[in-house]
Amino acid sequence: MKKRGIGLGCSWYGTGYGNGFPDVSSAFVEIHDDGSATVLTGAVDVGQGSNSIFAQIVAEELGLEAQDICVYSGDTDATPDSGTTAATRQTYNTGNAVLKAVRQAKSSLLVYAAREFSCPTPEGIELKEGYIGVKGDPSRRVPLADLVFQARLRGERFISAESSTARSTPVDPETGQGAPYWPYSFGCQSAEVEVDTETGVVQVLKVVAVHDVGKALNPTQVEGQIAGGVTQGIGYALLEELELDEGKIKNPAFSSYLIPTALDVPNIEAFFVEDAESTGPFGAKGLGEPAMLPTVAAIINAIDDAVGVRITSIPATPEKILKALAEKNGEVNR
């Protein structure tokens, strides 16, 4: 017999290395005389889209398009250290470093432009749609590329290097108090499952996921990260089990260490709540790991709702579910 159930899971997660550990990211930015800009950062894009985010941050500040920005990343010979791609930290930490760097380069550019346009203050200069000029006076503007080219001929360069450090403090071992992480991410997910009581097999039918992302700099990537996190959460809840024998891994291949395939992924409805994080780049904060955390609780709770057994160790394999059902039925028979 197949029975269905629905479960809910919620999470909060402190991003970054935390507990006072030095959490530093660095970036270089240069504005070029063809109207483009370059970002150099040690942050490694492993598919989560950090390079796209850094390009968007620089483009937003300079009034350009993301395709006008070249991002060079992860080259230890040429790029500054930006820490590991871990702890849900790259958008927040390295994003802040990139934002500080581009604003520093932009500041020098605005000072130069103010002199060229005989504007009394750099605050009177704006960058917009690939042009630079005096605010409110369309007749006094030129292509950004032209101005930077002329500046280059006069020996001016608009290059900057900046770092950003996430602020956290160690927890007091006596009181347990402190500020070990910042910022925090929050999420809530519901899962609908179908449990086969004869085989113990669980099929996840649907997941609805809602996450607090600060400000979504790239909504499509946010939805993609949520979907990816949910998929990993399904593997965490139902499939992935590392088997050890005297310290040796017994299932070192994907034929025996199972992860979800496309056929295991259910309908995922991804939503996000935008509440800008004041310390993040344009209000953004991380989402990578938090997206998978509520999935596990939601699935385990849904199994309980479907067949009335509480699985207390993961993954919730068919063997564990059948054993729990047998124990439950045995208690009923007594």
Automatic annotation (TrEMBL):
InterPro entries attached to this UniProt entry: Ald_Oxase/xanthine_DH-like, AldOxase/xan_DH_MoCoBD2, AldOxase/xan_DH_Mopterin-bd_sf
Domain Aldehyde oxidase/xanthine dehydrogenase second molybdopterin binding per the UniProt entry, residue ranges: 2-266
Pfam families given in the database record: MoCoBD_2
Molecular function terms, GO-annotated: iron ion binding; oxidoreductase activity
UniProt protein name: Molybdopterin-binding domain of aldehyde dehydrogenase
Lineage: Bacteria, Bacillati, Bacillota, Clostridia, Eubacteriales
